[in-house]
Amino acid sequence: MSVNVRPAIEDDLDAAVDLYAEVAAEGRWIGGEAPTDKPERRAVFQASVHRDDAQVFVAEEDGRMVGELGIEVRRYGVAELGMMVAADARGRGAGSALLAAAIDWARTAGAHKVSLQVWPHNEAALALYRKFGFEQEGYLHRHYRRRNGELWDAVVMGLPLG
Length: 162
Known about the structure:
Layout: E1 3-7, H1 13-26, H2 38-49, E2 54-61, E3 64-73, E4 78-85, H3 94-108, E5 113-118, H4 123-131, E6 135-145, E7 151-160
Parallel strand pairs: 4-5
Antiparallel strand pairs: 1-2, 2-3, 3-4, 5-7, 6-7
């Protein structure tokens, strides 16, 4: 199967929310956790689709959304991103295609750097980011409180552009 990546449009909102809820329910890969407030999440995605300083990309296989990446340029010139890929599509190129599109967009948007945070146990994502040249710039200890009360660490990574 080939992966098609493109900018998100209004018609993608429901599929993006469903994908978010699916990945959040796994409880291991993104900051969001189940249960997902779908109307709230839809509003977040909808606002991102219409911003000049942000872009949402979707990855599709055979017309089905299998990945989503949101990126925004902060006022200090650093583009921050977050990404998710459906469980059954991981390891098949969706993450790479999304990341390549986001880095290209960040360059054209005038960013001088791309930044992200990732859970330290997400070895596949860490390997993907390293493949694209991201380097670890920091480590946040016991930084994010999960719904069950656990405190999770995060790895801060960056990719200078130019």
